[in-house]
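Exercise 7b. Backbone tokens:
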């Protein structure tokens, strides 16, 4: 739901009791949101006043025409200001304040409810909510600075994914693709392609997708493999993902062999992760896949969690036989990235890390 729609629903009494309480608490605690709301409310009042003014003016004209006929002119004692001149500043301030508030609060959005609905757990999902406003702004910038390209409808959610093998199987986060109408992947080297979900594990928050267009994957040579053994605390690790349109690199270390609430299926990492990193790879310094980025604790800027690679292997091993035969993991593969510089590792890995675009 857009922020202005939430404002309108509140003013029109359309929110439930819980939604109304959450919204009013946010107004008290968030100065930016409160300012945006007041500007929006003021704008509506201005529009309502202008409408009433017009209705009164039309009535007076009708009375005048009835009494004096249609051929007589009406002269105003005072020079009349236009609506734009009288209220232009108010409208401009309201629009700019609302836009700033939307950008500031995008991290508070959840996948399945109103803007300020609290999540059921302490781990914040790192999918990236895409807003119509942002998409339109990006379109303006691209029209100025970039060559024309195919324009697609903006996705509902965006995140990251990476290849599991050379047969077009990729892995991402389940919370992004849950209840999706369609899921696409793309990057700078890979044309946007439709995928289908063939296996998922909601408990671990992982989903495996299959690229539908076999022509696009016929030359795949995935350079990394899945590490079967668990890594050790203190190991250097790095991430690749799409918190924005371009690939973003992050590095740090493995800070714990368990995740939130001592969850042994996850690692804790000392890498800042952001909305859009969900489903991206966690790699050791040799370029081995050791996990899938899952999320972070709300408010913790340099702490993230990743589902362990061993859990990916276990999920596939416990799948139906037909799925196991399809999803052949690149295990025990000779590591071609081990002795390369980090920059060279990333160049080879990048074509097989994707931006996920989810439509619901």
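Sequence design result:
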């Amino acid at each position: 739901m857009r922020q202005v729609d939430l404002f309108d629903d509140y003013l029109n009494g359309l929110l439930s009791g819980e939604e109304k309480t959450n919204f009013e608490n946010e107004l008290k605690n968030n100065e930016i949101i409160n300012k945006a709301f007041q500007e929006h409310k003021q704008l509506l009042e201005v529009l309502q006043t202008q409408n009433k003014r017009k209705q009164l003016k039309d009535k007076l004209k009708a009375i005048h025409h009835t009494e004096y006929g249609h051929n007589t002119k009406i002269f105003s004692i005072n020079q009349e200001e236009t609506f734009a001149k009288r209220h232009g500043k108010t409208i401009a301030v309201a629009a700019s304040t609302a836009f700033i508030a939307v950008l500031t609060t995008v991290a508070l959005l959840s996948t399945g409810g109103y803007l300020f609905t609290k999540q059921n757990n302490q781990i914040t999902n790192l999918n990236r909510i895409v807003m119509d406003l942002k998409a339109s702004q990006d379109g303006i910038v691209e029209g100025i600075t970039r060559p024309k390209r195919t324009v697609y409808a903006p996705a509902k959610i965006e995140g990251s994914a990476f290849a599991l093998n050379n047969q077009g199987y990729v892995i991402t986060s389940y919370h992004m693709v849950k209840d999706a109408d369609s899921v696409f992947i793309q990057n700078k080297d890979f044309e946007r392609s439709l995928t289908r979900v063939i296996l998922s594990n909601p408990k671990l928050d992982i989903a495996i997708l299959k690229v539908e267009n076999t022509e696009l994957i016929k030359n795949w040579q995935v350079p990394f493999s899945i590490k079967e053994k668990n890594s050790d605390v203190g190991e250097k690790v790095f991430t690749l993902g799409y918190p924005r349109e371009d690939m973003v690199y992050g590095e740090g270390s493995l800070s714990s062999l368990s995740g939130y609430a001592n969850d042994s299926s996850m690692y804790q990492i000392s890498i800042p992760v952001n909305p859009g990193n969900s489903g991206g790879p966690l790699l050791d310094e040799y370029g081995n896949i050791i996990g899938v980025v899952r999320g972070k604790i709300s408010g913790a800027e340099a702490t993230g969690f990743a589902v362990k690679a061993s859990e990916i292997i276990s999920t596939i091993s416990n799948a139906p036989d037909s799925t196991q035969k399809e999803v052949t993991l690149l295990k025990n593969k000779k590591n071609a990235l081990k002795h390369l510089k980090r920059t060279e590792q990333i160049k080879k890995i990048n074509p097989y890390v994707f931006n996920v675009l989810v439509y619901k």
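Instructor comment: The mean pLDDT is 78. Residues 3-118 form one domain.
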